[in-house]
């Protein structure tokens, strides 16, 4: 195969990010469709292929120091991904600070390990918090994600 462990981990991470985000969109779309508030329609369009691929030589390739970094915009995809990360960070904080309700039995070690794994998978979003420019998450996206995460956490406590 020839793939490094880093490549395998990045592939696993992106697979989890895409899957979780698309499931959230799918559930939302299904609920809106059941309520009669949305009609799904698909429009098939023709895609143009780039002819540049056949004329490239080995000298045309340059090493990009930003290769592998996500470019963030104000897309809802990034809002939901960031929300998942913030919910997991809140779960970790409540678990590690002992703020959980006493009704559950056990140490909660499984929950902490699962939350850590999800935070590691969503590491590109964590890195996007501390970057500037197109590789950083816009403030409006962070605010929307924080609002959704706060609502989710507050409603799950009730």
What are the key terms here?
single chain; about 55% helix; mainly alpha; about 160 residues; 5 helices
Describe it.
The protein has 158 residues and is mostly helical. It has one domain. Helices cover 57% and strands 0% of the residues. The protein has helices spanning 5-34, 76-96, 109-121, 123-129, 139-157. Helix 2 (76-96) runs antiparallel to helix 3 (109-121). The radius of gyration is 20 Å and the shape is globular. The N and C termini lie far apart (49 Å). 14% of the residues are buried.
Pairing-aware structural class of the strands and helices? mainly alpha
Share of helical residues: 55-70%
Number of H/I helices? 5
Major β-sheet annotation: none
Distance between the termini: 49 Å
What's the overall geometry?
A: globular
Keywords: Cell wall biogenesis/degradation, Glycosyltransferase, Membrane, Transferase, Transmembrane, Transmembrane helix
Main location: membrane
InterPro entries: Cellulose_synth
Subcellular location: Endomembrane system
Concise summary:
The protein has 158 residues and is an all-alpha fold. It has helices spanning 5-34, 76-96, 109-121, 123-129, 139-157. The protein has one domain.
């Amino acid at each position: 195969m020839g793939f490094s462990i880093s490549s395998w981990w990045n592939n696993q991470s992106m697979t989890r990010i895409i899957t979780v985000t698309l499931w959230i969109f799918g559930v939302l779309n299904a609920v809106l469709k059941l309520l009669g508030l949305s009609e799904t329609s698909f429009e098939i369009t023709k895609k143009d292929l780039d002819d540049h691929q056949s004329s490239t030589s080995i000298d045309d390739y340059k090493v990009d120091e930003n290769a592998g970094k996500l470019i963030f915009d104000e897309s809802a995809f990034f809002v939901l991904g960031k929300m998942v990360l913030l919910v997991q960070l809140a779960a970790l904080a409540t678990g590690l600070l002992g703020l959980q309700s006493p009704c559950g039995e056990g140490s909660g070690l499984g929950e902490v390990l699962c939350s850590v794994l999800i935070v590691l998978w969503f590491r590109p979003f964590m890195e996007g918090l501390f970057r500037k420019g197109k590789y950083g998450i816009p403030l409006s996206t962070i605010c929307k994600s924080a609002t959704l995460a706060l609502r989710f956490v507050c409603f799950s406590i009730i």
